[in-house]
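lol forgot to send this yesterday, sorry. C-alpha cells for the thing we talked abt
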C-alpha cells in the first residue's frame, strides 16, 4: 500500500474554481487527508493515519476492485485558512475522490464549502463541534460531538452526589459546546454552576484559572481541553495548586485523559472520572483485533487512542460504502451509502444517523486506574446509543 506525504504551501490566485485538473485513474480511489502532522498537535494526524493503516492491515488496500491511496496534507494545527487551501489543492491538483481527517473544528468548517462545491464526500475523523455536519451535505462524521460525550457526564455527576460545579473549557467551538451541554444537563438534574472560565486554545497559562476555581470552592470542576499538551499542563497545575487536597473533584470529557498521554500525566490522574466513547482498555474482540493490527502496522511506540479508532472506523465506513456503490466515488452515491450504516467498532456498536450524518454510539463513564504498570481509563458505567442531544 502507498502512503504519500505532501508539504502544504501557499498557492497564489487559487480560488474556488474546483473542476478537477486531471481525469481520475479508474482503478484507484484517492483519499485526501487534511490533519496536523507537525507542531504541538502532530499526534492528532498520526493517530488518525495509524488507525486507517490498522484497518488496511486487516482488510487490505483494495476494495470493490479499487486500490486505496492516501495523500496527506499537514495543516499544522488549528489554522482554517491553511486547511481550506490544502483542501483546494487536494481537489484541484491531486484530484482526490474523498476528503478525510480534520482534527480541529475551525479547519473542518473552512473546508466544508470546498467539499460542497467540489462534490466530494468528506469524512470527519475528529473535529467535534455539533454544527459541522450542517455546513455541507457532503460531510459524514465518525468521531463524536462534544454534547454527545458531555451530557452523560453531567447526568452521572448529579446522580452521584455532586451538586456544585465550576466549568473550565477551551475557548473554541468544542469547548463552548461542552460547556453548554454540561450546564444544561447538570442544572436540569438539580445541580448548580458556581462559575465558569474559557481558556485560550493554544499555550494557556492555567495558573490563574486554577486559582479562580480553588477560590470558588466548588465540589468539582468540569473540564474540557483538547487532547495532548493542554491536559498535561492543567493536571500539573491542579496538583501544584492543591485542588485535590482541597477536596475539589475533577470530572471531564475523556480528551484530557487521552490514552496517548495518560502515562505521561502520571499519578495525579488516578481516580479521575471522565465520560467518553473510546478507551484502549475497552473489553471486546473488536478492540483486541484493532489493537493487534495497530501494533503490527505502526509499532508499539504509540498506544491507539480515540483518533486512531476514528481513523479505523472512517476506513470501515468508506470500504463498506464503496462496496455498496461498486467502487463509484460520486459523492451523492457515497454519502447515501454511508447514511444508516451500522457496524461493530472497536469502541462499541455504532451507526451513522441518516438524518444528521453523525455517529450514534455508546458513551462510557471511566475511572483512571493502574492496570499492571500502566494507567488506563477503565469503563464502569455506560450510556448506550447516544446521539448529539441538540439534534
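and heres what i got for the seq, position by position
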Amino acid at each position: 500500500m502507498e502512503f504519500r506525504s505532501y508539504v502544504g504551501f501557499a498557492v497564489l490566485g487559487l480560488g474556488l474554481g474546483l473542476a478537477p485538473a486531471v481525469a481520475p485513474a479508474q482503478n484507484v480511489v484517492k483519499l485526501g487527508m487534511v490533519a496536523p502532522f507537525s507542531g504541538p498537535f502532530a499526534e492528532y494526524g498520526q493517530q488518525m493515519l495509524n488507525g486507517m493503516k490498522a484497518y488496511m492491515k486487516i482488510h487490505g488496500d483494495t476494495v470493490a476492485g479499487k486500490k486505496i491511496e492516501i495523500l496527506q496534507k499537514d495543516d499544522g494545527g488549528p489554522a482554517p485558512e491553511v486547511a481550506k487551501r490544502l483542501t483546494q489543492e487536494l481537489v484541484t491538483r491531486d484530484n482526490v475522490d474523498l476528503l478525510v481527517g480534520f482534527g480541529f473544528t475551525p479547519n473542518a468548517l473552512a473546508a466544508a464549502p470546498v467539499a460542497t462545491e467540489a462534490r466530494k464526500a468528506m469524512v470527519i475523523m475528529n473535529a467535534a463541534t455539533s454544527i459541522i455536519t450542517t455546513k455541507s451535505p457532503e460531510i459524514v462524521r465518525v468521531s463524536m460531538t462534544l454534547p454527545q460525550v458531555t451530557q452523560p457526564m453531567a447526568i452521572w455527576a448529579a446522580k452521584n452526589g455532586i451538586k456544585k460545579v465550576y466549568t473550565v473549557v477551551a475557548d473554541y467551538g468544542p469547548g463552548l459546546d461542552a460547556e453548554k451541554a454540561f450546564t444544561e444537563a447538570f442544572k436540569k438534574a438539580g445541580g448548580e454552576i458556581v462559575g465558569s472560565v474559557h481558556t485560550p486554545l493554544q499555550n494557556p497559562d492555567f495558573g490563574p484559572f486554577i486559582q479562580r476555581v480553588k477560590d470558588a470552592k466548588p465540589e468539582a470542576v468540569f473540564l474540557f481541553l483538547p487532547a495532548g499538551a493542554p491536559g498535561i499542563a492543567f493536571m500539573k497545575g491542579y496538583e501544584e495548586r492543591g485542588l485535590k487536597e482541597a477536596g475539589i473533584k475533577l470530572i471531564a470529557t475523556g480528551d484530557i485523559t487521552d490514552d496517548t498521554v495518560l502515562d505521561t500525566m502520571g499519578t495525579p490522574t488516578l481516580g479521575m472520572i471522565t465520560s467518553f466513547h473510546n478507551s484502549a482498555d475497552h473489553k471486546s474482540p473488536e478492540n483486541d483485533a484493532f489493537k493487534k493490527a495497530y501494533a503490527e502496522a505502526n509499532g508499539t511506540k504509540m498506544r491507539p487512542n480515540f483518533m486512531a479508532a476514528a481513523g479505523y472506523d472512517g476506513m470501515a465506513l468508506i470500504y463498506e460504502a464503496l462496496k455498496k456503490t461498486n467502487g463509484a466515488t460520486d459523492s451523492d452515491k457515497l454519502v447515501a451509502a454511508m447514511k444508516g450504516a451500522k457496524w461493530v467498532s472497536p469502541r462499541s456498536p455504532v451507526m451513522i444517523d441518516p438524518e444528521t450524518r453523525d455517529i450514534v454510539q455508546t458513551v462510557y463513564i471511566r475511572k483512571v486506574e493502574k492496570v499492571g504498570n500502566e494507567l488506563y481509563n477503565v469503563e464502569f458505567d455506560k450510556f448506550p446509543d447516544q446521539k448529539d442531544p441538540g439534534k
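The mean pLDDT is 92. anyway ping me if u want another try
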